[in-house]
Task: inverse folding
């Protein structure tokens, strides 16, 4: 069974609510496709205007983060119920920027992944190595550890519906991109890891994205790889060129 491609934009801390509405209206005709799922993961304040602006299109709206508690004294956080109440279907969890700047750990990532499933939200689980880790030859071991902890306590049925985004940290926003062979090698290892944790059927079902300086010029080659099922796109998702990435054929 062929896995359906999923191409998601991670807006990071960009675009005001009014800019969001204008941009989505501009992007609607450019990202039309029946060949892939298209998701815009936007800042929390942009979620509601994004949902309104995306109505009637194939664009789904996701969040960039979510807390692992239902509610409580967690100033500045957003709960899963807040997301589901307005119709959010996806959430990015464990992005390297969250890990680096906001002290997220493999353990908190795991809590968030389980909470997302509990509320019917599809997690886009991020993993990836630093340049030092790649140069030391421990990329696969490091990424496998991230995946194993992220999916601790997650059922096979849940895992089949998850999305994993492999983003080598050294390629995020740098203009550097992993070679097609490097990206495929790690995505293949991630799929093998999921198959080890669960079974081959689960490994074959889960969708794995590549992220890290994805552009209109390299999307086709990357997405053609056997174990790459789309991309998590950063900077290029903030430009009309995102339409060319979505329609990479």
Result:
């Amino acid at each position: 069974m062929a896995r359906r491609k999923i191409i998601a934009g991670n807006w990071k801390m960009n675009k005001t609510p009014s800019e969001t509405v204008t941009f989505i209206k501009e992007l609607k005709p450019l990202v039309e496709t029946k060949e892939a799922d298209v998701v815009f993961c936007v800042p929390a304040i942009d979620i509601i205007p994004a949902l309104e602006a995306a109505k009637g299109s194939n664009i789904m709206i996701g969040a960039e983060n979510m807390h692992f508690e239902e509610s409580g004294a967690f100033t500045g956080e957003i709960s899963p119920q807040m997301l589901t109440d307005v119709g959010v279907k996806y959430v990015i969890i464990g992005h390297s920027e969250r890990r680096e700047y906001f002290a997220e750990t493999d353990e908190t990532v795991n809590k968030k992944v389980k909470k997302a499933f509990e509320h019917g939200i599809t997690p886009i689980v991020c993993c990836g190595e630093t340049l030092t880790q790649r140069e030391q030859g421990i990329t696969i071991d490091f990424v496998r550890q991230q995946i194993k902890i992220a999916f601790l306590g997650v059922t096979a049925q849940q895992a089949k519906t998850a999305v994993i985004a492999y983003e080598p940290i050294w390629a995020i926003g740098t203009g550097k991109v992993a070679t097609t062979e490097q990206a495929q090698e790690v995505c293949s290892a991630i799929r093998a890891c999921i198959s080890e944790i669960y079974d081959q059927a689960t490994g074959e079902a889960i969708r794995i994205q590549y992220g890290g300086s994805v552009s209109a010029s390299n999307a086709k080659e990357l997405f053609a790889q056997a174990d790459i099922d789309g991309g998590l796109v950063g900077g290029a998702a903030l430009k009309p060129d995102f339409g060319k990435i979505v329609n990479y054929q």
